[in-house]
Specification:
about 90 residues; globular; 6-stranded antiparallel β-sheet
């Protein structure tokens, strides 16, 4: 998989969602993306549009999705949040 997302960008989006999102059953929800972490905080997750992004140790990430369209929609939302001034 190409490095489509930078680790700093993922963490920036995660922080924006945590700070500005609304409470959700999984974590915080903002602009259609839910952000949460595992119990120890070493792995963070972004979920939305049928995609689960897992970002963890050594700045590695993995995207789980069934359709390419889901991935495209998810990445557009993530980039939108990253560029949004809050």
């Amino acid at each position: 998989m190409k490095n489509e997302l930078d680790g700093k960008l993922i963490l920036s989006v995660y922080e924006k969602i945590i700070q500005h999102g609304e409470d959700h059953e999984d974590g915080k929800l903002y602009e259609g993306i839910c952000a949460f972490s595992d119990i120890d905080g070493y792995t963070v997750y972004l979920k939305g549009s049928g995609v689960l992004l897992r970002f963890g140790f050594h700045n590695t990430y993995h995207l789980d999705y069934q359709h390419e369209k889901n991935k495209e929609d998810f990445l557009k939302k993530v980039l939108y949040i990253a560029e949004k001034e809050l």
